[in-house]
Amino acid sequence: MGYDIERFVGYVNEGLLCSICRDVLEDPLQAPCEHAFCTACIHGWLVHHSNCPEDRQMIDVSLLRPLYRYMRNDLNRLQLHCKNREYGCEMVCSLESIDRHERECEYSQIPCSNAGCTVQIERRNLDGHLAVCEYRSRECPNGCGYTILSAEDTQHNCVAELRTELELLRSEMICRVEEAKHEMESRLDSQRRHMVQKESILQNEIEELKSQMSRMMSDVRSLMAAERQHRQELEQAELEKREL
């Protein structure tokens, strides 16, 4: 939908009106036949139709283009009243700057920022409302440090609140201790498994070394026996040599 033509100051050229809603163009698009529309209006129209609502020429979304520059300039220069005029705002802006003004307008109706409050109030009166809002929060004046809503003042009990807070902290601490305990047990189990695995590997290596040493001792004994046999043969040969 376009901008309500009643908000504008002075004459508005017919070419700057949407061919569908007949209000001043908002976020405009133009068809090849040069008829202009609000983006929302023409998109809604083309859901059920495939032609221009003015001259019935065939059009498609892909054929829509931005408004000619000179028309955009004329559109942006139009002067109109703020939408909060009924609440007392007397500002008149160009169409180009109206959105920026209305985002900051002191007469805009905005919701109270306190959770649970449904009041809509003018931006300029928000601070005053927040000071008396029944949903405003503040720190307990008795020093317990608990944040309370004004509506809960009569129900607030410092001792009960602190006891509840203490129980929550105790429960949280127990949970954290249990988590730390489980984590340590998990780490110890992992280290224990690692040590057992390491011990098994070392034991295998020791057995392999023992086996190698046993083979070496057997080889040494064989060499020593061969040496004795060789010495005996040499001695026998020496005796035979002497006899000859």
UniProtKB/TrEMBL annotation:
One of its GO terms (molecular function) is zinc ion binding. The keyword Zinc-finger applies. The keyword Magnesium does not apply. Residues 18-56 form the RING-type domain. GO terms for biological process: regulation of canonical NF-kappaB signal transduction. Residues 192-243 form a coiled coil. Residues 101-144 form the TRAF-type domain. A zinc finger (TRAF-type) spans 101-144. Keywords: Coiled coil, Ligase, Metal-binding, Zinc, Zinc-finger. This is RNF41 ligase. It comes from Sagittarius serpentarius (Secretary bird).
